[in-house]
Amino acid sequence: MAVPAKNIPAPDLVPIRRALLSVFDKTGLIDFAKALAAAGVELVSTGGTAKEIAAAGLAVRDVSELTGFPEIMDGRVKTLHPSVHGALLGVRDDPEHAKSMHDHHIQPIDLVVSNLYPFEEVRRSGAGYASIVENIDIGGPAMIRASAKNHAYVAIVTDPADYASVLNALEMNLGSLSLDFRKKLAAKAFARTATYDAAISGWFADTLEIEHPTWRAFGGRLDQVMRYGENPHQGAGFYLSGDKRPGVATARQLQGKQLSYNNINDTDAAFELVGEFDPTRSAAIAIIKHANPCGVAEGATLKAAYAKALACDPVSAYGGIVAMNRMLDAEAAEEIVKTFTEVIIAPDATDEAAAIIAAKKNLRLLVTGGLPDPRADGTVAKSVAGGLLVQSRDNAVVDDLELKVVTKRAPTPAEMADLKFAFRVAKHVKSNAIVYVKDGSTVGIGAGQMSRVDSSRIAARKAFDAAEAAGLAEPLTRGSVVASDAFFPFADGLLSAIEAGATAVIQPGGSMRDEDVIAAADEHGIAMVFTGVRHFRH
To answer: What is the model's pTM?
Structure first.
């Protein structure tokens, strides 16, 4: 049964006479405290916060004066006291609450300024277990939640970025804060503690290797409000989880207009794909359109790789995303800007390359400082009506798999290199996925079809169109290899690839009709390799 409410109306304006300040992040603290003091607000504080305020020459009461009890246990216990929480939770227009506050000498607190121990930062730093646990804040969240619950009488500030708006509101309302303003502060406060608790619970699950905790929480901080989502009638915002994995969320944007929802989605897909290619082995370029690759290639230089990737599907590349596994140089930049491109993302860029990109004022250039590790553990989530689907990141890498030749003919070394390349790309193509590769470059990609045969045919058709546009006598699928993200359920998908000119195939295997597919490959002298791992991507 729910706790009954007394339905006492909240006042619109609450005068701010006493403030409790207890913060870890002291950004802007002294200027804010000075402004509060100048407005006649009594300052109460704790520990290091009180010392900084006093050092600035401001009058401040230590919280122990309110509680009659000193801070103990290395500061773990300082605000967890009825004199503090009674001052925060008391409903001042309730006669019983008012009597309790009077009888126990509890002085009301009208404004709380609190932010939390840096649990998220300490966790990301690689600190040990004990240090991480020590940075789980207890008193802070308790005060924040108490203040937010009693927003009818208390204002709670959890973000230094809000100091200016609080002072402005106080000035506008002659030393008071409105109910609407207090509600907005409370909403932000509850969101902050929820995100904080999500980080803690997620860390415990990871540390204890609990794959599927009974309660699962995700949190993030708003980075930007977007003009719209996938379509103009949809609202959208971009939230940062705090994960430092190199990519669009952690990148520095050197130039160009604001990224859109679709830009961010596609750029993430592009950089995750190019992260599969070791930059010490060769330069690699991935061109993405609508979260699917339309061209991927390796080369001795970025310029060479870009030319090969573009040749795979120059029509689809228009307005696409270009990702690379090495520092963007001037030669590559000059080639890329010849085709209309939305975003370029790279680990870094030379000054000369950045200057070339700068001539295209709307072209976004992002630098990440590194590549995402395709082998790293991680969690991904997808919303469905009424719930979330949560799974571990697909971190299977073809170089780590035990490849099994199942046909009479084994692939040549050149074919095997291309087969591995094709399977790396197929991992990042929407299912059903078919990828043709020749000489370290995609030459045909079929994505997102309901039938694997259709994906094979679409990829072959794109290769034919690209060859025609380039003035080639025949499509580059002739003499190529082909990868499938999942097994061929029937021989017809394989036969379609053979018809396109493929000489070797890589696929997971595992179909009830594997024997039929292997027999068809042997009949046509095709080499086939099983990986034992599939890469569905829906």
So the answer is: 0.87
